[in-house]
Specification:
Distance between the termini: 41 Å
Strand content: 15-25%
Number of helices: 8
Radius of gyration: 19 Å
Largest sheet: 7 strands, mixed
CATH architecture of the largest domain: Alpha-Beta Complex
Structural class: alpha+beta
Shape: globular
Mean pLDDT: 89
Number of strands: 12
Bound molecules: ligand MTE, molybdenum atom
Helix content: 10-25%
């Protein structure tokens, strides 16, 4: 990562995590928290994305050790423990289906036209916990547009790598591999939908879905598919791994919705990792103002 002088910093710059931590510790000593933005950068240097929250960020340690990535096992610690077996270089992504310029791109070519920006998003897992994660990446729409989707492209389907040697959890049938997910075209093109390549100013660790993962902050976390190798424009609503495993529990839309219980638990509240008391879960995970209009006229109990 480029080292820049502080007067060169733009809103796209983020502090290296180690630096961030040192600044935090320094501030704790000073008791000078108010001088800083949530990321630890001096406020002067920080024109934060309008899409970012200024809620307290979950520590790097928690974001990288408390994970769901069933390709490495079902315990929260399994991804951090076993993810070193995933080889992310070389990496390529196939983009195909209803578009004028399909292709298989190596990661460098896929990323080249995009400058990265920071998005500090809430992540709400369907299990009832949440985090605040400072991602780096670029809008999904900017990537999709490069392939000229046709008028037949009504949905986008995403697929994670299949390789049981690198992803040992795939030797078991806890889910139907490959892990797949999908978005309706307008959801995919929404400015909040994000392709992440890093967090806390560092490249993504494997347990968080390196080298490229989706982030859709108004939907339950399982929509944010990791380690993507294929993106397909499709005419029909694609099925999803979680939908195939339990269709009555995991709908296609899976918008965060405190009014629609999971069949086995309430979705009214959530535990923000690091906090003791539970907090209220917000409709669309707090992004209603930006995304509720995508669903006008839809019955969100039926389309859960
Ligand atoms: N390929 C793949 N993507 C996945 C998962 C998974 O098991 N496999 N788990 C999902 C779930 S349930 C959540 S909550 C988020 C967790 O992302 P994080 O570990 O980076 O916080 O990843 C999602 N993406
Ligand atoms: Mo999740």
């Amino acid at each position: 990562m480029l080292i820049k002088r502080s007067d060169d910093l733009t809103d796209n710059d983020v502090t290296d995590y180690a630096l961030y931590q040192r600044r935090r510790d320094f501030l704790k000593t000073l008791g000078g928290i108010a001088l800083l933005g949530a990321s630890g950068l001096p406020l002067m240097a920080q024109a934060k994305s309008a899409f970012s929250t200024d809620e307290e960020q979950t520590p790097f340690e928690d974001i990288t050790t408390y994970n769901n990535f069933y390709e490495f096992g079902t315990d929260k610690g399994d991804p951090a423990r076993y993810a070193s077996s995933l080889k992310t270089t070389p990496w390529s992504v196939t983009v195909d289906g209803e578009c004028e310029k399909p292709g298989k791109l190596n990661l460098e070519d896929l990323l080249k036209p995009h400058s990265t920006e920071e998005r500090i998003y809430r992540l709400r897992c369907v299990e009832g916990w949440s985090m605040v994660i400072p991602w780096q990446g670029f809008p999904l729409a900017d990537l999709l547009k490069r392939f000229n989707p046709t008028a037949n492209a009504k949905y986008v389907r995403f697929e994670t790598l299949v390789d049981p040697d690198q992803l040992p959890g795939q030797k078991r049938s806890v889910l139907d591999w490959p892990y797949t997910e999908g978005l309706r075209m307008d959801e995919a093109m929404h400015p909040l939908s994000f392709m992440a390549t890093g967090l806390y100013g560092k490249d993504l660790l494997n347990q968080n879905g390196a080298p490229l993962r989706l982030v859709v902050p108004w939907k339950y976390g399982f929509k944010s598919i990791k380690s993507i190798v294929r993106i397909s424009f499709v005419a029909e609503q694609p099925d999803t791994s979680w939908g195939r495993s339990a269709p009555e529990e995991y709908g296609f839309y899976s918008n965060v919705n405190p009014d629609v219980d999971h069949p086995r638990w309430s979705q009214r509240k959530e535990r923000r990792i690091g906090e003791f008391r539970k907090r209220e879960t917000l409709p669309f995970n707090g992004y209603a103002e930006q995304v509720a209009s995508l669903y006008s006229g839809m019955d969100l109990r039926k389309n859960f």
